[in-house]
Amino acid sequence: MIIDQANLSGIYKSFKTVFNEAFDGAPSQWPVVAMQVPSEGRSVDYKWLGDFPMLREWVGDRAIRDLSAFKYEILNKDYESTIEVDRNDIEDDQIGVYTPMIQGLAWAAKQHPDMLVFALLKAGFTTACYDSQYFFDTDHSVGGASVSNSGGGTGDPWFLLDLSRPIKPIILQTRKRPEFVAVDRPDDENVFMRKKFLYGVDDRKNVGFGLWQLAYGSKSTLSATNYAAARAAMMAFKSEEGAPLGINPTHLVVPPTLESAGRSILKVPNDAAGAGNPWFNSAELIVVPWLA
Predict the structure, then answer these.
(1) Percent of the chain with pLDDT over 70
(2) Distance CA 85, CA 99 (A)
(3) CA distance 96 to 75
(4) Going by C-beta distance under 8 Å and a sequence separation of 6 or more, which residues neighbour residue 177?
């Protein structure tokens, strides 16, 4: 193949088609637990998380809550991945050998939010959220009292979440969609010095915590007793004014090491003695490899 701009443009279009098709077909788990929030600048301040959405009877003036004590800013970060295509492979019409690599770029781009979202969820025991407490903590301040959404322990973590609402426990903040890019002009320095054309993907995004009231994290043994305690704790959460928040846990999120324990709680209708399981199908089980 003659290396000119016309042929290189054709290669770029072909690679981009392969990338887009693989990207659209790649699986992803983050949409279940996170809400996507578009960003128009370098960062977004989520201090509004300090006011859990609730209605009250309108008597007199509107009750306007002061959010000046809250500041939770998520700063966008840049991410990229790049591969090299040897000039000789273009000259020798060997472009097809790079198709799996382009598809791999697409899969990596599609699943990268999963890595970020679930890494943050796992780090929730030691990472602060909008109220300056750890996301999973024993002393969130609500109405002057301490409220816990942490089960303690030192083992593999598991998470009980209410994912029935528009607001989710995790925020995926996106500045732009992953973009397929190239450095593929014949006179580029990289081509002149190393006879390499470059193709890659870049995007801008970041993750952060949403409402801690929608999540309960524990490193204690995943048992029916601890699962029941987590459900009870979440369903007892109240607003600053003492009104029930109506939390209803919908999903149990576990690493692969706890899949068996999760299934025994949620997927087995009866125990070995034939007694009914009160937690059968009480939540959906999600097994996440990124939590391993």
Answers:
(1) 93
(2) 11
(3) 39
(4) 203
Report the pLDDT averaged over residues 163-167: 94
Say whether pLDDT at 118 is over 50. Answer: yes
Cα 110–Cα 36–Cα 51 angle in degrees, nearest 5: 155
C-alpha of 60 from chain center:
41
The encoded tokens of residue 150 equal 């942490």
Segment 12-26 shows an average pLDDT of 96
Would you say residue 195 lies in a domain?
A: yes
Residue 241 pLDDT > 60:
yes
Q: Which amino acid is at 244?
A: P
Give the other-Cβ count within 10 Å of 152's Cβ: 13
Give the span between the Cα atoms of 78 and 262, in whole angstroms. 36
pLDDT confidence bin for 57, thresholds 50/70/90: low
Question: Is pTM beyond 0.85 here?
Answer: yes
Q: Please answer whether residues 174 and 213 qualify as being in contact, where contact means their C-beta atoms are separated by less than 8 angstroms.
A: no
If one counts the domains in the chain, the total is 1
Residue 63 lies in a domain: no
Contact at 8 Å (CB) between 228 and 282? no
State which residues form the domain around 127: 5-19+28-50+70-291
- H-assigned helices in 159-223: 189-194
Cα 123–chain centre separation: 12
Taking alpha carbons only, the member of 178, 222, 162 closest to residue 32 is: 162
DSSP state of 128: B
Domain assignment present for residue 123? The answer is yes
Instruction: Collect all residues with Cβ–Cβ distance below 8 Å to 251 and sequence separation of at least 6.
Output: 32, 33, 160, 161, 163, 283, 284, 285, 286
Residue 68: pLDDT band with limits 50, 70, 90: very low
Instruction: Please state, as a whole number, how many other Cβ atoms lie within 10 Å of the Cβ of residue 285.
Output: 16
In a domain, 175, yes or no: yes
Helix axes 5-25, 99-122, angle to 10 degrees: 40
